[in-house]
C-alpha cells in the first residue's frame, strides 16, 4: 500500500513539474505557481465544505501552514537556479530533498532493514543520475549551488511537514486546502512585490494579449495545481501507513517521470547517464517494494 501510494505520488509530481515547466516557457514562473495553486485551492475549498472538513480544524494544521509557506520559497529558488543553470547540475542537486524526510524518519526511530537500506541507496543514486549530472564544463556559480540546495531543503521540509498535518480523510482535504491558501498568500505577496519593482506578472504581449494567454492556459494550470495537490495527498497517506523512509524515497522518483514525459511529448532524447539513472531508480523501487 505504501509503495503504491508513494509511486503514485512520484507520477503526479513528475507530471506536475513537466506541465509547470512547459507553462513557464509562455508566462512568468511565479504567475504559474500562484494561478495553479489558486485554482487548486478553489477546488479543495469546495471539497472541504461538501465533506464538512471544517470540523477537523486543530493545531495539526500548523504543519500544513508551514508546508504552504515553505513550498513557494522552494519553487522560486528552484526556478531561479534553473535560470542560472546548468540544468544538468541543478536537477540532481534538487533531488537531494529526499534526505530531509528520510533523515526525519530515522531521527524518529525508523530503522530500515538491509534490503530497504540497499533499495534506498540505489533509488537515490538513480534519481540523481536521472537528472543527467554534467561532469564536465564551466564551473557552476556558487549562488546557483546555494539556491539549489535551499530549494532542496525546502522541498524536503514540505515532505516532512505535510505528513503530520492530518490523521483523517476529511482532515486530509482540510490540510491540503490550508497548505494551498498559504501557497497563494506567499506567492501572491511575492508577485505583488515583483510587479511593484517593474517585473511584469503577465506574458509580454501587447494590448491585453498576456491576459488572454493566461486564460487560455487555465485548464493546463488547473492540471498542474490539482496534480500537485493529489501528490501531496497520496504522500501524506503513504507516510502515515508505512515507513517514512520508504515513502519519501519512492515519492522522490518524480525526476524520472519528468524526464520520461519530456522524452514522450517533446521527443527529448535521454542521455546515457539519465537512462542508467532511470534503471537504477526502478531497481531501487523493486527492492523497496519487496522489502
**Helices and strands, in N-to-C order?**
HHHHHHHHHHHHH
How would a crystallographer describe the biggest sheet? none
Query: What integer value in Å does the Rg equal?
Result: 19 Å
The overall pLDDT average reads 77
Tell me the count of domains.
Answer: 1
How much strand content do the residues show? under 5%
Oligomer: single chain
- What is the terminal separation in angstroms? 13 Å
- Count, helices: 13
What percent of the residues sit in helical stretches (DSSP H or I)? Answer: over 70%
Q: Tally of extended strands?
A: 0
Give structural notes.
This is DMT family transporter. It holds the Pfam family EamA. InterPro entries: EamA_dom, EmrE-like. The chain crosses the membrane at residues 6-23, 30-55, 61-82, 89-108, 114-132, 144-162, 168-193, 213-238, 244-265. Keywords: Membrane, Transmembrane, Transmembrane helix. By secondary structure, the chain is mainly alpha-helical. It has one domain (2-290). It is 77% helix and 0% strand. It has helices at residues 2-23, 29-51, 61-84, 87-94, 99-107, 114-130, 142-162, 169-196, 209-216, 218-241, 244-251, 254-265, 272-290. 51% of the residues are buried.
Key structural traits:
291 residues; mainly alpha; EmrE-like
Quickly describe the structure.
The protein is mostly helical.
Please outline the helices and strands.
Blueprint lengths: L1 H22 L5 H23 L9 H24 L2 H8 L4 H9 L6 H17 L11 H21 L6 H28 L12 H8 L1 H24 L2 H8 L2 H12 L6 H19 L1
Helix pairs in contact: 1-10, 1-11, 1-12, 2-8, 2-10, 3-4, 3-7, 3-8, 4-7, 5-7, 5-11, 6-11, 6-13, 8-10, 10-11
Protein name: DMT family transporter
Keywords: Membrane, Transmembrane, Transmembrane helix
Family: Belongs to the EamA transporter family.
Amino acid at each position: 500500500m505504501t509503495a503504491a501510494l508513494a509511486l503514485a505520488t512520484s507520477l503526479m509530481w513528475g507530471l506536475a513539474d513537466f506541465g509547470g515547466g512547459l507553462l513557464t516557457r509562455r508566462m512568468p514562473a511565479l504567475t504559474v505557481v500562484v494561478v495553479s495553486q489558486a485554482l487548486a485551492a478553489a477546488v479543495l475549498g469546495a471539497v472541504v465544505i461538501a465533506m464538512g472538513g471544517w470540523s477537523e480544524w486543530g493545531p495539526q494544521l500548523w504543519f500544513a501552514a508551514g508546508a504552504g509557506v515553505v513550498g513557494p520559497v522552494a519553487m522560486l529558488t528552484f526556478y531561479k537556479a534553473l535560470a542560472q543553470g546548468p540544468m544538468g547540475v541543478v536537477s540532481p542537486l534538487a533531488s537531494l530533498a529526499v534526505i530531509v524526510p528520510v533523515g526525519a524518519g530515522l531521527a524518529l526511530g525508523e530503522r530500515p532493514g538491509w534490503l530497504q537500506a540497499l533499495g534506498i541507496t540505489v533509488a537515490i543514486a538513480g534519481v540523481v543520475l536521472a537528472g543527467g549530472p554534467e561532469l564536465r564544463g564551466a564551473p557552476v556559480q556558487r549562488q546557483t549551488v546555494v539556491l539549489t540546495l535551499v530549494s532542496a531543503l525546502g522541498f524536503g521540509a514540505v515532505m516532512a511537514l505535510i505528513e503530520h498535518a492530518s490523521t483523517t480523510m476529511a482532515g486530509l482535504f482540510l490540510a491540503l486546502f490550508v497548505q494551498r491558501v498559504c501557497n497563494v498568500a506567499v506567492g501572491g505577496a511575492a508577485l505583488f512585490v515583483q510587479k511593484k519593482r517593474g517585473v511584469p506578472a503577465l506574458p509580454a504581449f501587447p494590448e491585453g494579449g498576456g491576459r488572454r494567454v493566461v486564460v487560455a492556459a487555465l485548464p493546463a494550470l488547473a492540471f498542474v495545481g490539482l496534480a500537485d495537490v493529489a501528490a501531496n495527498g497520496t504522500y501524506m497517506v503513504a507516510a502515515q501507513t508505512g515507513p517514512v523512509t520508504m515513502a519519501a524515497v519512492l515519492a522522490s522518483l518524480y525526476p524520472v517521470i519528468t524526464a520520461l514525459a519530456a522524452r514522450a511529448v517533446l521527443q527529448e532524447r535521454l542521455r546515457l547517464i539519465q537512462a542508467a539513472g532511470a534503471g537504477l531508480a526502478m531497481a531501487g523501487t523493486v527492492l523497496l517494494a519487496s522489502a
